[in-house]
Automatic annotation (TrEMBL):
<keyword id="KW-0411">Iron-sulfur</keyword>
<feature type="compositionally biased region" description="Basic residues">
    <location>
        <begin position="385"/>
        <end position="400"/>
    </location>
</feature>
<feature type="region of interest" description="Disordered">
    <location>
        <begin position="368"/>
        <end position="400"/>
    </location>
</feature>
<dbReference type="GO" id="GO:0030488">
    <property type="term" value="P:tRNA methylation"/>
</dbReference>
<feature type="compositionally biased region" description="Basic and acidic residues">
    <location>
        <begin position="370"/>
        <end position="384"/>
    </location>
</feature>
<keyword id="KW-0408">Iron</keyword>
<dbReference type="InterPro" id="IPR040072">
    <property type="entry name" value="Methyltransferase_A"/>
</dbReference>
<dbReference type="GO" id="GO:0070475">
    <property type="term" value="P:rRNA base methylation"/>
</dbReference>
<dbReference type="GO" id="GO:0003824">
    <property type="term" value="F:catalytic activity"/>
</dbReference>
<dbReference type="InterPro" id="IPR058240">
    <property type="entry name" value="rSAM_sf"/>
</dbReference>
<dbReference type="GO" id="GO:0051539">
    <property type="term" value="F:4 iron, 4 sulfur cluster binding"/>
</dbReference>
<dbReference type="Pfam" id="PF04055">
    <property type="entry name" value="Radical_SAM"/>
</dbReference>
<keyword id="KW-0004">4Fe-4S</keyword>
<dbReference type="GO" id="GO:0046872">
    <property type="term" value="F:metal ion binding"/>
</dbReference>
<keyword id="KW-0949">S-adenosyl-L-methionine</keyword>
<dbReference type="InterPro" id="IPR013785">
    <property type="entry name" value="Aldolase_TIM"/>
</dbReference>
<dbReference type="InterPro" id="IPR007197">
    <property type="entry name" value="rSAM"/>
</dbReference>
Length: 400
């Protein structure tokens, strides 16, 4: 039975994009709420990549064959396109880039520095190209010539728009972001317990090639990678929503939405660098976390070297046979991946060396005490660790 599940998931990951999406939409529509597909269609607090994203992308694929052709499944597929010559993209242009592009002088007083001033607005989810928002939020910065320059030389702040939104009873909010080519991704705003901070879960790809059998994104396959400005558009829209809902400030950003970040490392790196840039989004590097299943030891080494943030490892199971069932595209043993993480993290600054270990707990599949002991032994391999467990109950899955 496990081999059949793995083979079915692998076949789904390798199917042509239109077929994947048509099958996923049909499954989500027909499945009862007790199945993973049914949960994706019915549960407001499920992980990103639910039926709304699947359906939105199915429509886009049907309407845009050229976009679908980009998404061949597998390692290295869906490489983000080179940035075309055109308007300046504000979300990937830190203050020093804006000053160079517009010939602005760097001023010691941040309130008078135009580059810093534009980013002080972007960090609030404000559009500096909008005359109304610019005058409301930064009257000292506003001038007709500045607004005209930004409007003429810069593209729209957000590479897409929110096409759907839902708020769960605990305040968690999903945003469905429709991209310029009609495809869609989701991000999730999570007001943290205690009411002092907000976390944001963002996507790095449209779909995913890893084929995890418990994840609704895994049924979609990989359509394409997100560009850095599309990744950061999720953050900017979240900041805008936080301001409008008067939520606590955004402190944590985690790459735990749609996609495998390490299969889109260059664009994820660009986005992370802007997130932790002290004059851009200005988040602490310890509060930005990239989650990965660990496609290979080489991917892990490159990520640890390239990303100025923390890493998280989605383990799911310590037993290699069970891991292969849950993540059928995995090619490396638990020990190989663990050793790659530990060796690579040792080269990072001390504050970024901690490794978050995650799993999707599936009733009757990987939730026994024996499974927990095996994960502990395989993950630690004799090393010490601090344990902090955070769980959220999900609707019962269809796993036997």
């Amino acid at each position: 039975a496990e081999a059949a599940v793995g083979a079915e998931a692998t076949a789904a990951a390798e199917a042509a994009p239109p077929e994947r999406y048509a099958a996923a939409v049909a499954a989500a529509a027909a499945a009862p709420p007790t199945t993973p597909a049914g949960q994706a269609a019915t549960a407001a607090d499920r992980q990103p990549a639910n039926a709304s994203a699947v359906a939105a992308n199915a429509s886009a694929v049907a309407a845009n064959a050229s976009a679908a052709a980009v998404g061949a499944a597998g390692e290295g597929a869906g490489v983000a396109g080179e940035a075309a010559e055109g308007p300046l993209q504000l979300l990937v242009s830190p203050p020093e880039v804006l000053r160079a592009a517009f010939g602005w002088r760097k001023l010691s007083h941040a309130a008078s520095d135009k580059g810093d001033g534009v980013w002080s607005l972007l960090r609030k989810g404000v559009d500096p190209r909008s005359e109304g928002e610019l005058t409301e939020w930064s009257p000292n910065l506003y001038s007709p010539s500045l607004r005209r320059r930004l409007e003429a030389d810069c593209g729209p702040v957000c590479a897409g728009a929110v096409s759907d939104s839902s708020i769960a009873s605990d305040g968690t909010q999903k945003l469905l972001l429709r991209l310029e080519d009609g495809l869609a991704v989701e991000c999730v705003l999570i007001p943290m317990v205690g009411g002092k901070t907000t976390s944001l879960c963002i996507s790095s790809q449209v779909g995913c090639s890893r084929g995890c059998t418990f994840c609704s994104t895994g049924t979609m396959g990989l359509l394409r990678n997100l560009r850095a400005e599309e990744i950061l558009a999720q953050v900017w829209l979240a900041l805008r929503t936080i301001r409008q809902r008067r939520l606590p400030p955004l402190v944590n950003v985690v790459f735990m939405g749609m996609g495998e970040p390490l299969n889109n490392l260059d664009e994820v790196r660009r986005a992370v660098e802007l997130l932790v840039h002290p004059k851009a989004f200005a988040l602490s590097a310890r509060c930005v976390c990239v989650s990965t299943v660990g496609p290979s030891p080489a991917h892990i080494r490159r990520a640890a070297e390239a990303l100025p943030c923390r890493l998280a490892w989605s383990v799911h199971a310590a037993d290699d046979a069970l891991r292969k069932t849950l993540v059928p595209t995995t090619r490396h043993s638990m020990g190989e991946l663990r050793d790659a993480f530990l060796a690579s993290l040792a080269t990072k600054p001390a504050r970024l060396r901690g490794l978050v270990v995650e799993l999707a707990l599936l009733e009757g599949v990987n939730d026994s005490p024996a499974h927990a002991e095996q994960r502990r032994d395989q993950t630690l391999d004799g090393r010490s660790a601090r344990s902090k467990s955070r769980t959220r109950r999900r609707t019962r899955s269809s796993w036997p």
